[in-house]
Design brief:
By secondary structure, the chain is of the alpha/beta class. The protein has helices at 23-40, 61-71, 89-102, 117-122, 130-145, 185-193, 205-224, 246-266, 280-288, 300-314, 330-348, 353-364, 370-381, 384-394, and strands at residues 8-13, 44-47, 76-79, 82-83, 107-112, 151-154, 159-163, 176-180, 196-199, 234-242, 295-298, 319-323.
Length: 416
């Protein structure tokens, strides 16, 4: 889990996989990826619930995360998200409790109203009631997970009779997060129930522009309902592909980015306002290099700058979540996340500041360390054989016996 006072880093796996590969192998590679992130020290791993489109293939995040829990050790495992209107709240609460115990207290409960209209249509759910149903379900689930005395609840779409969980989460206060897009509804719901937020709308230019105002909705709603919301529990989703150079990142990502946008975002989701890219170069230019871009395709330094800009824009948040995609091939994708762990995480969190200060101190005080070198040479001269070897070194022969340079001066300084 994230260390207090430092920015957390995580991944959001919808997943978005192009049609054409064996589903079993895709799922296994997704589990490999979760294991990879755990080894790299990432704080959180999220996966979603979808039932249509052909690109988003995980139907049960709880099942997937239980499997991931067996292959990981410390990373938090979040449902990103369970679509509450699709389920009876009691069974959702039961599954989250089981997941928390099976993963040793690493579960994070993320919920939403349901992102795909096609899913709701198959289940016969009117989109106009989805957000209200999420709100109602969250209230019931929070009561169940807190272990309240038996209670009943009768709704238009579910019923509880004298209900209580027989087992509570392993965590004393299982973390909650609400998905938020561009509208105020997600933030308002988070404030009402005092939960964290998973801002998914931040992946679009419109979503980024809405972020400065978004948190105020959560704060206002929290105040109205007697709750408090914490920016440390605000998660911002960003998209990136990172390589050793910008040209390499572009070459690795551009064809997959073109396919993802044209075939899925435009061709399948038919997202309002989205237009197909003319070619791969057009995809790169409009995705990563247009004003207000929501994606980074470049080097670790480019991502560091983008995260700092996001901190400035939002006023501060707790965890940056990278959106997992198949823009690049699996090997380049895994390497991209490796570069984030090696270079971006420590830079953003100031883990290298002490190293740089120590290096500068040693360089700036070099003269003060000459006495240490003199002490070494003095001991050498007190031994006849060692002194003879030192003379060989000074004459240019036997360089391997030279006094190491990091002692502050060469051997000749001892005579000063």
């Amino acid at each position: 889990m994230n260390v207090p006072g430092r920015m957390g880093f995580g991944a959001f796996l919808a997943p978005h996989h192009p049609i054409g590969e064996h589903p079993m192998l895709q799922l296994r590679r997704d589990l490999d990826f979760a294991e990879h992130l755990d080894r790299l020290g990432f704080d959180e791993f999220w996966c979603g619930e979808h039932h249509s489109t052909g690109w988003e293939v995980i139907a049960s995040p709880e099942m997937f995360l239980a499997a991931a829990g067996e292959r990981t050790h410390r990373i938090g495992l979040g449902t990103g998200v369970i679509s509450l209107p699709y389920h009876h709240p009691f069974t959702v609460a039961q599954r989250m409790v089981q997941l928390d115990h099976m993963t040793g207290g690493r579960a994070i409960f993320g919920s939403g109203p349901g992102a795909l209209p096609s899913d709701a249509a198959m289940l016969g759910i009117d989109p106009m009631v989805q957000r209200d149903r999420q709100d109602e379900a969250m209230g019931v689930i929070r009561r169940l997970l807190r272990g309240e005395e038996r209670f009943s609840h009768k709704a238009e779409w579910f019923e509880l009779n004298d209900a209580r969980l027989q087992l509570l989460p392993l965590q004393h206060d299982l973390p909650f997060a609400v998905a938020s897009m561009i509208s105020p509804s997600g933030m308002t719901l988070a404030g009402k129930h005092g939960t964290g937020v998973l801002s998914i709308g931040s992946m679009s230019t419109e979503g980024i522009q809405a972020l400065p105002l978004q948190w105020s909705f959560a704060e206002e709603s929290a105040a109205e309902h007697g709750n408090v919301v914490d920016r440390g529990n605000w998660r911002i989703v960003m998209s990136w592909h990172i390589a050793e150079s910008q040209s390499q990142a572009i070459a690795e990502a551009k064809d997959g980015l073109l396919r993802h946008h044209n075939e899925y975002v435009v061709g399948t989701l038919m997202r309002p306002g989205a237009e197909p890219f003319a070619d791969a170069d057009d995809a790169i230019e409009k995705t990563a290099f247009s004003p207000g871009s929501a994606s980074v395709i470049g080097t670790p330094d480019d991502l560091i700058a983008a995260i700092r800009e996001m901190q400035e824009l939002t006023g501060g948040f707790g965890t940056v979540i990278g959106f997992v995609h198949d823009w690049a091939n699996p090997e380049a994708t895994f390497r991209s996340w490796d570069l984030v762990a090696r270079y971006v995480v420590p830079e953003v969190n100031g883990l290298l500041t002490g190293y740089r200060e120590s290096q500068a101190w040693v360089i700036g005080n070099r003269d003060a360390f000459k006495r240490a070198n003199k002490a070494i040479v003095s001991k050498i001269k007190s031994n006849e054989r060692a002194a003879a070897a030192l003379e060989v070194t000074r004459s240019g022969r036997g360089a391997a016996m030279a006094v190491p340079a990091h002692h502050g001066a060469d051997a000749g300084d001892a005579d000063d």
